[in-house]
Amino acid sequence: MSVFARLVLVLLLAVAVPTAAWAGVEPEDPEELYEQGLRQMKRGYYDEAVISFEKVRNHFPFNKYSVLSELRVADCLFEKASYLEAVDSYRQFTRLHPRHPEVDYAVYRTARAEFKLAPTVPQRDQQHTTLGIRFVNDFEQRFPESEYLDEVKRLRFKAERRLGRAATQIGNFYWKQKSFGAAERRYRIALDDYPEAPTMGKAAYRRALCLVKLERVPEASEALTALVAVDAEGRWGKRAAAMLEKVAAMPAPEPKPVEAPAVSATEEAPPEGG
Prior knowledge:
The protein is mainly alpha-helical. The chain has 3 domains: 25-80; 81-147, no CATH class; 167-250, Alpha Horseshoe (Serine Threonine Protein Phosphatase 5, Tetratricopeptide repeat), CATH 1.25.40. It is 70% helix and 0% strand. It has helices at 3-22, 30-42, 46-59, 64-79, 83-96, 103-117, 127-142, 149-176, 180-193, 200-213, 217-230, 235-249.
């Protein structure tokens, strides 16, 4: 082979090899890249899926699949249990694309991620549960017709049950300490903040008992009557009805005498007839 022929062959290989190596490594079509990421995500290859979605975002920033890839990256983070990062990604998506057709999904998933970050034990810090409730409130106000509304309502129920239990357990702590004034306040806060929580029957009943202990019988009677009205056939409603009969038979507490204010040594008593 002549020197010229060898030179031509070397040049052809130099051009052909990179082209062949580049071809087939990754698709150049954004939709194809996006679908590749979806397949990887479905199989649980979340890191690989993120790489595919990031390629769409970097190489095709003005394509519709670029916006969808932002959302799918957040989904990958959620599925990897990287919930803090997922919250940030979902919130960024809602800020950048407030009119996108899937913005309701992003808000819904933000709430779910916050609830995932919250401890399931009610006694522990429930900051993320409270944040999740905020996103639920935002969702219900903005997307009353969303397909995710039923799931959001289930999230609310679980969150309020957890927060209601936490608030009620603080009241139970004071109850065991026989600090009935503090217990009554805690039960009342729980009832005001989480009236639909499953633990509220017990909180309402215990609050009424605290009022009895504090000799605030009219208030106790009112609280028991209200509990019977909303839960006549339930466990706590029946207990309230039985207690209401006992409270009705109690003698009214005698009014406490009003003591005259003491006169200090530096003050002079007013003259008689003055």
